[in-house]
Amino acid sequence: MLDSVCDSNANKPENVRKNTVEVTLNKGKLDSKAFQALWSRINHRSYYIVGFDEDELVKKAIAELNKRLRVSKIYFKVERGEQASILESKEQLQAGAGFVRQNMVREETAPYTTMRASSQVRYDLIGRLVAETGLTRKAVTEILRGLDKIVFDQFGDNPEEFIIRARGIVNEQKATAVIKHITYDKLTEVFSADIFTEPELKKGQLGVSAMAAQRHLYDYVIYDSTNERNFASNLESHSGEVEVYVKLPRGFYISTPVGKYNPDWAIVFYAGKVKHVYFVAETKGDMSTMELREIESAKAHCAREHFRAISDENVVYGVVDSYDSLWNLVRN
């Protein structure tokens, strides 16, 4: 009788794992002549040589830090309340309904208290910035000495944020200096094809972070953004132009003075369709507003120099925002 009037599945929570797929490598595509030709051209490691005027970098870093380094103070906000007069269940406590917040009047002083860095907590500010920027202790010391007092005093308000923001600004200036003076040379050492079989995040949800694929090295593409999904979809739909492609794993990277750089895609076009048969691409959502900020711009420049050093003219690297811009680039 109950079965006739009650659906036991009606109130079941939604299965968040529904449509979850696990990526599987297509061994045939990995061993294919087209992909192996691509891989043999891009799998070489490289080393770089860079030189720049450290004194000039110090001056520029000081100027930018004084202009842009702003650190928020840390506050404690204390709110007062009292326990509900009646506690009815465990669920009530778990839902946060066991306590009732009282007076919401905001006062100028309490309940806010400013916190400064404790003298009992020791920070190696110079050492941290040396590790984060790759500059010498001498250069970092000169930069810190050159800061306006009001700027440097922010360190006491929030040491961690000070270090993070200072690191970013200094690295931007370093990237600008590096981009003009870097050269790459090819090493005999290569990346192993094992990076395509090593375990990493290879699960996704269809329609949310994964799409089925026919020309990809794997049976699904795991994407991080709508733009990546659209780009992969176009690679799939242009079957007369694209032979095989792969979203490169994190194990494939280029060393740069501003950190490791992992390009997004490697693509093989059918011979005869385009001038350049092999392409390594980085996809960005909006090229028009592309600050491709200094660090990203420096990494892209390093990638171009890296691929120029390790491969022949049939391999091209570029930053694109869509398949159409990619096609225009390789056609020209």
Description:
The protein is of the alpha+beta class. It folds into two domains: 16-50 and 185-331, 3-Layer(aba) Sandwich (Trna Endonuclease, Chain: A, domain 1), CATH 3.40.1350; 54-76 and 104-178, no CATH class. 37% of the residues lie in helices and 20% in strands. It is built from 13 helices and 14 strands. The chain has helices at residues 2-5, 27-30, 33-42, 54-68, 90-94, 125-133, 137-145, 149-152, 154-157, 159-178, 226-237, 294-310, 323-331, and strands at 20-22, 44-50, 74-77, 81-83, 99-101, 112-115, 182-190, 203-205, 210-212, 220-222, 242-247, 265-269, 278-283, 315-320. Strands 11-12-13-14 form a four-stranded mixed beta sheet, with helices on both faces. Strands 1-8 form a two-stranded antiparallel sheet. A hairpin with a 7-residue loop joins strand 9 and strand 10. Helix 4 (54-68) packs across helix 7 (137-145), helix 6 packs across helix 7 (137-145) and helix 6 (125-133) runs parallel beside helix 10. It is flat. It starts with a helix and ends with a helix. Residues 105-113 and 287-292 have low confidence and may be disordered.
